[in-house]
Amino acid sequence: MGRNSILSRYTVRYIDKNEANGMNQIFLLRVLCRENEGYVNFHKFPNGWKDYFDNTAYNFGCFMDDELIAAIRLNYYENINECPYFIGFNLINEIKIEGYMAYISRLSIHPSYQKLGISKLLFDCAENHSKAMKCYNILGDCYSPLTDKYSSAPFAYKIVGKLSVNKVKDWPLKPFDSDLIYKNLLK
Fold it and tell me: Residue 51: which of 85, 82, 21 has the closest Cα?
């Protein structure tokens, strides 16, 4: 069975923040996907991993039948300074991100469904939503071991700096650095 026929079995849809069951599935999936990384686990987050970004986020889920198997979170800000993580951004000097921007975070793919192209489906969904909102700057944080994947085809994001979470207010986990990735959807 080819990659396209496998991907055609999935449905990607918006999950409203008031859709309690869908949001709870996302919060639990976030923990499940990160348990092996050593900083998020069900002991620390028995009800799933959520934070203040979730109050204003657009969440998109990928489903196989009725089972949530992947999700991505998207927030919008009038400018980069409004993003709550801005205090932890260490951008490369020549990078200027001005105006309305989207921020991608918490990409989570169930371990049984990784390496099937689902992250590309979710990134495409986030990019299409951003275009519909007339937002053409997308910034995101990316766990450093995965950065090469998102900075090459078919994603084509640029690495534009680091996020130092130890500077972020109320960060609930041990400090680590992740890469910041960026794409201008007009280019």
Answer: 85
Q: How many CA atoms lie within 13 A of 30 on its CB side?
A: 22
- Domain residue limits at 111: 3-184
176: domain CATH number is: 3.40.630.30
Q: What share of the chain is helix, strand, coil (3-state, %, to 5)?
A: 35, 30, 35
Find all residues with CB under 8 Å of 88, minimum gap 6, and list them.
163, 164, 165, 166, 167, 168
H or E segment at 26?
Answer: helix 20-34
- CA 36 to CA 161: how far, in whole Å? 25
Taking the model in full, what pTM does it have? Answer: 0.89
- How many domains are there within the chain? 1
How far apart, in whole angstroms, are the C-alpha atoms of residue 140 and residue 102? 8
Residues 57-79 pLDDT 10s: 999 999 998 899 999 999 999 99
Query: Which string of b and e fits 100-137 if b means at least 16 CB within 10 Å?
Result: ebbbbbbbbbbeebeebebbebbbebbbebbeeeebbb
